[in-house]
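To fix ideas, we quote verbatim one protein's residues and C-alpha cells.
>
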Amino acid sequence: MIEGIIIAIGAGLMLGLYALPEKFTKDFKFENTWGLFFMLTMFLVPIIASTFLIKDFSGVFAAVPTDILVKMAGASVLWGIGVMMWGKAINHIGLSLGFSLFIGTVILVGSVLPFVVEGLPEGNVFFTILGGIFVVLLGVLFNGQAGFTRELDEIAAGKNKKEKGSMVTGISIAVVGGLLATGFSYANAVGRPYIHEACQAAGNAEWITAVGVMFPIFISGGIVMAAYFAYQLTTKKAWGDFKTPNFAKNFWLILIMAVFHYAASALFAFAAFKLGEIGNTVGYAIFNTSCVATAIVSGIITKEWVDASSKAKNYLYLSLACMIFGIVIIAVGNGIA
C-alpha cells in the first residue's frame, strides 16, 4: 500500500510541475506551445514508449476485447473535450477559479466513478474514503477562494484590468469540462484489467500494464486536442510562429513537458494497480490532489503570491492543509481495505 501511495504522490508531483519549462520558451504564442505539446505528449511519446517497451505490442491489443477498447476510446475522447473546455473556462472566470472548479469536479466524480465500474467496498472503507475526498474538496474550494481574493486584490490595486466573460457561463463550462475529463478515470478502470491480463500473457513486467493502458487513452484523447489546436493555430494565424531561431530550444523544452505529463499519467495507472482493489479511487484522488498541492507550492516558490493580501494567503495555506489531511484520510481508508 505504501508503495502505491508514494507512486501516486510522485505522479501528482510530476503533473504539478510538468508545465514549468513553458516559462522558458521564446517567440511562441500560447497556441504554438500547447499545440506542439499535445502533439508530442498524446502521439509521439506514447507511440514510442508503447512500441519499444511492450513485448508483442500488436498481440497485446489484439487480445483485448473490441468493446473494451471502444469504451476506452469513447471515454478518452470525452476527457480530451473536457480538457479543452477547461481552457475555455479560464477565459471567462480566470485561472484560479477555473482550475479549482475543474479539478474539484474531477476529484469528486473521477474518484467515485471506479466504484460504479468495480462495485462498492465495505461500508467503513467507503465512508472513510468519501470523508477524505470531502476534506480534499474543501481544500480545492479554499484554493479557489484564495485565487479569487487575489484577483480582487489585483483589480483593486489596478494591476489586473483584464475583462472576464460571463461568470455563470465560465463556471458551467468548468464544471461540465471536469465531468467530461473524468473519462480518463473511467477508461483506466474499465480497460486496465484486460490490458494487464494481455500484457502478462505476453511476458511483460507488471509495470508495463500502465504503459499499455495509456496508449488508447492518449491516442483517442489526442485526436480531439490536435483538432482543437489546429483550428486555433489557423484562426490566430500562428503557424508561422514556429519559424523562429528558438524553435530547437523550444522543442526540447516542450518535449520535456510532454515526457513528464505522459510519465505522470502512466505512474498513476501503476499506482492504482499497486493500491489494490480500490486503487483506482484512492490513486485518482491522491494523484490529482498532489498535483494541485504541487501547483500551489510551486506558485509560492516562484513568488506568484508575493503581492497577495494576507487574507488570500491564509485561504491558500488552509487549502494546502486540507489537501494534505484529506490524502492522509484517503490513505487510511485504503489501509482498512
